[in-house]
Write a structure and sequence with these properties.
Elements (H helix, E strand, L loop, with lengths): L1 E3 L4 H6 L4 E2 L8 E6 L5 E5 L10 E8 L2 E8 L11 E8 L5 E8 L4 E3 L3 H9 L8 H19 L5 H14 L13 H17 L3 E4 L8 E9 L2 H5 L2 H9 L5 E4 L8 H9 L3 E4 L12 H18 L3 E2 L18 E2 L21 E3 L2 E3 L7 H7 L6 H12 L3 E6 L7 H14 L5 E3 L2 H12 L2 E5 L2 E5 L8 E4 L7
Parallel strand pairs: 1-2, 4-9, 11-12, 11-18, 11-19, 12-13, 14-15, 15-17
Antiparallel strand pairs: 1-3, 3-4, 5-6, 5-7, 7-8, 8-9, 10-22, 16-17, 20-21
Protein name: NodB homology domain-containing protein
Organism: Kribbella ginsengisoli
InterPro entries: Glyco_hydro/deAcase_b/a-brl
């Protein structure tokens, strides 16, 4: 259906079929050609070479949503002449037009940015290193480091008071917006619309979820203390009664995790994961620190049969997480300004960080919702979960048995479980199953046959073929 001179990350992520016609690393332009129409999309490749004079990293507005990237503002590479016209201006933070998407009389399009880089800027939270956001990041990083140094000396009520005070100052972040940041998925929709117009026909892609499910619901728990270990039934019992399964992440060296505890979790068809070494916020503080701690964490992971990791307090490092040897990580939130490391990957779908699957937390954490923001029930949980369901995404929620004696949490947890108990459109899966599926999907491809598009690879038999419709045409 398409042919591309270089790997096209948007197609790779959505599993849109295309042929690679060549890969010239020194070339600064990539070209996708629609085989049905011959129309072309030319884009600026992020790794094709940059110079200060014509590339500028920043957050921009395109068609009403944010893109973060190195934007090409020069003319040397642009094919634009009198036969081309602007179809979308690209604006900076002051609302000034700094570049544009162009189209010629034949319907060919020029895009002055790399979609793959923009996707990665959001997944990896590199948007926090751009412009003034970088200054705020460095200040916040110093505050977080200092907080974890003194936290063991602070009484628990004082810790909560400090977090609540900080939360009041973070209540209205501009980006990522909270509780949901839609920009990346708006960008996906825009790119699908663009490529369907180029092709002149609906564009096929591999469905997100297996076995006919339209969205995924994943329950996870971090067990922070021995108390939480002993009170797991506060959360597990209502899950079991409603037919749910869940994962339980234990801290390796903060309290004892007996073989009996692990066996009980597995006997209940649930999953065991690793929640750091000591829950002190230092596991991924540096490459050196991780090197010192990783052998002990891996030893416990192997003993427990754990393939997943979540960092305490969702401390994370894009460079370090995939070096830990876990099949998946779940330390990123989609959007959360209230955590010690605020930000988010801006998506409610899994994605890859090198060879590791990242499963973002997509509902606000229980501690944030009830202890910090002082909500009385789970209406925000339910409302956002409904929204993600409509978007065909992944609802991944984190709740702690350590705080489950709070009646607000108990009420909210049952609200969430009750809301979707009978929803047969949901894939109610363990994190390890979602990660395994995401690998199968990424290793599968669509091929055209006389009967239409067929799927081959490990997802065959479980996945469906979807089509992005033409503009103004219903799916």
């Amino acid at each position: 259906m398409f042919e591309s001179t270089h790997p096209f990350a948007f197609f790779d992520y959505w599993r849109v079929p295309y042929d690679l016609s060549g890969d010239s690393p020194e070339t600064r332009l990539g070209v996708v050609t629609a085989g049905t129409s011959g129309k072309q999309l030319t884009w600026i490749r992020a790794n094709g070479g940059k110079s200060r004079s014509d590339y500028k990293a920043g957050r921009y507005q395109l068609a009403g949503f944010s893109v973060v990237c190195h934007l090409y503002t020069g003319t040397a590479l642009s094919p634009v002449d009198e036969t081309w016209h602007k179809v979308e201006p690209i604006l900076d933070g002051h609302g000034t037009e700094v570049a544009a998407v162009w189209e010629d009389q034949q319907g060919n399009v020029f895009l002055p940015l790399d979609p793959g880089e923009s996707m990665n800027f959001l997944w990896s939270e590199r948007y926090k290193t751009v412009g003034s956001a970088n200054v705020k990041r460095l200040v916040r990083k110093g505050m977080v480091k200092g907080y974890y140094v003194v936290r063991p000396l602070l009484p628990r009520p004082l810790q909560l008071k400090m977090r609540r005070t900080l939360a009041k100052r973070q209540n209205a972040p501009s980006f990522p917006s909270w509780p949901l940041e839609p920009s990346l998925h708006s960008f996906y929709d825009w790119l699908f619309d663009l490529t369907t117009r180029l092709a002149g026909t609906p564009v096929p892609w591999i469905d997100l979820w297996p076995d006919g499910h339209s969205w995924a619901m994943v329950l996870t728990h971090d067990v922070e203390t021995g108390f939480g270990r002993d009170e797991m039934e506060l959360l597990r019992a209502p899950e079991r009664d409603r037919g749910y399964v869940s994962s339980w992440n234990f801290v390796a060296e903060r309290y004892e995790v007996s073989d009996e505890v692990v066996a009980r979790v597995k006997a209940d068809d649930c999953e065991v994961g690793v929640h750091g070494l000591r829950h002190d916020g230092r596991d991924v503080a540096s490459k050196r620190m991780l090197g010192q701690r990783l052998p002990a964490m891996r030893k416990h992971a192997d003993h427990w049969g754990a393939v997943g990791f979540r960092s305490p307090a969702t401390q994370r490092s894009w460079e370090l997480m995939p070096t830990m040897g876990f099949d998946y990580d779940s330390s990123y939130t989609d959007s959360d300004p209230y955590e010690p490391q605020p930000g988010g990957c801006c998506t409610y779908l899994p994605f890859f960080n090198e060879g590791q699957v990242e499963l973002p937390i997509t509902l606000p954490q229980d501690h944030t919702l009830f202890e910090i923001l002082q909500h009385d029930d789970g209406e925000l949980w339910v409302g956002k979960a409904r929204d993600i369901r409509e978007r065909r995404g992944m609802v991944l929620v984190l709740a702690h048995p350590d705080y489950a004696e709070d009646p607000r949490l108990a009420k909210g947890w049952q609200q969430l479980l009750d809301e979707f108990q009978s929803d047969e459109t949901a894939w109610k899966a363990l994190p390890r199953d979602v990660a395994s599926w995401w690998r199968d999907r990424a290793s599968s491809e669509l091929r055209q046959s006389p009967d239409g598009w067929t799927l081959t690879g490990p997802a065959e038999g479980r996945a469906r073929v979807q089509h992005a419709p033409l503009a103004n045409q219903e799916a």
